[in-house]
Amino acid sequence: MAWELAHPDPQAPRDGLSDFVAAAAMRVRWASAVDAQVAFDQAPRVIALGGEFGRVAGRGGVVLYVHCFEGGMDDWSMVVPWEPFAGPVLVCVDDLEDHCMWISEDDPPASEALSLLQTGIELAFGTRAALTADGDLPPD
User: Fold this and answer.
1) How far apart are CA 38 and CA 41, in angstroms?
2) What pLDDT, in 10s, does the model give residues 28-69?
3) Among 36, 93, 127, 139, which residue is least crowded by beta carbons within 10 Å?
4) At what angle do helices 108-133 and 34-48 cross, to 10 degrees?
């Protein structure tokens, strides 16, 4: 999914989504997207403390992916258009199978959540770098 956001169809408009992403993403209201709220809360900690994440760069910019596989109720994957930071953020959970939740700035609570996620991830990168420099985490 991250690769698809970073490498949109060359025939699509600059901000266009690939057909794959458009077919897999379901717009949801922030208030009803409890699994997405959990992912937004946990993603900065996953990054900061050495969890699984990565970056994909392409015509669509730099896109982050973050995975949280705890073997419990909070298993999720998140795809974040990072540079530039622009929606949608996609959150995938097992219950949705081949689909993911599309979180965008459509309503004020979602807009605030996206802003907090951006700040949290920026801080997480600093924490991860400090822990890596101190030898507490292996280099990426």
Assistant:
1) 5
2) 999 999 999 999 999 999 999 988 899 999 988 899 999 987
3) 139
4) 20
